[in-house]
């Protein structure tokens, strides 16, 4: 299955590419809007700053390509920063794509960043997280999405309070953790993502 990763000019995507290959995908990193618009699955992945990532997407027309594919019901998966950029304004500075309603806020916790392993707590049954409730996954972030509709949350983790760890809504899904760094559980999530994208 062909998967494209939208290249916004920052972040190391090679580990995500390797993990997708192990999951059975044929991944490609691209700045081509038509490839991002038409592929069976588009992924926004990486680390960095919402504003700079949004500028990077806009500079090559990937922001509009992503919005268009979502309007057509084609699946998009956000990973870490890629999940945050699906939302609206970030307290880190700058606007996301606005595909999901709600802000991105700095974590209200004693330990920032939220770094290391934490246990997923499913908020509802979803295709993306099938079979991984209660499993540990790897996080590295200081900001997190706060959906306007709490029902968007597919899973949370406890980090001095509940933090949204995954969302799923129609053709949009996102994980705040790094599946490519999360061992067998992360591999299962990526396999689930491929299956989910075929069913959207």
From TrEMBL:
Give the catalysed reaction(s), semicolon-separated. Answer: 5-[(5-phospho-1-deoxy-D-ribulos-1-ylimino)methylamino]-1-(5-phospho-beta-D-ribosyl)imidazole-4-carboxamide + L-glutamine = D-erythro-1-(imidazol-4-yl)glycerol 3-phosphate + 5-amino-1-(5-phospho-beta-D-ribosyl)imidazole-4-carboxamide + L-glutamate + H(+); L-glutamine + H2O = L-glutamate + NH4(+)
Limits of the Glutamine amidotransferase domain: 5-193
**Superkingdom of source:** Bacteria
**Any Pfam family matching the protein:** GATase
A GO molecular function held by the record:
imidazoleglycerol-phosphate synthase activity
Subcellular location per the Swiss-Prot or TrEMBL entry: Cytoplasm
Its keywords, alphabetically, are: Amino-acid biosynthesis, Cytoplasm, Glutamine amidotransferase, Histidine biosynthesis, Hydrolase, Lyase, Transferase
Q: Which GO terms describe its biological process?
A: L-histidine biosynthetic process
Q: Which GO terms describe its cellular component?
A: cytoplasm
Cross-referenced InterPro entries: Class_I_gatase-like, GATASE, Imidazole-glycPsynth_HisH
Q: Where is the active site?
A: 80 (nucleophile), 178, 180
What Enzyme Commission number(s) appear in the record?
4.3.2.10, 3.5.1.2
Pathway connected to this protein: Amino-acid biosynthesis; L-histidine biosynthesis; L-histidine from 5-phospho-alpha-D-ribose 1-diphosphate: step 5/9
What PANTHER family does the entry give?
IMIDAZOLE GLYCEROL PHOSPHATE SYNTHASE SUBUNIT HISH
Question: What HAMAP family does the entry give?
Answer: HisH (MF_00278)
Q: What does this protein do?
A: IGPS catalyzes the conversion of PRFAR and glutamine to IGP, AICAR and glutamate. The HisH subunit catalyzes the hydrolysis of glutamine to glutamate and ammonia as part of the synthesis of IGP and AICAR. The resulting ammonia molecule is channeled to the active site of HisF.
**Subunit structure, per the record?**
Heterodimer of HisH and HisF.
Its name, as the record gives it, is: Imidazole glycerol phosphate synthase subunit HisH
Per the record, the gene is hisH
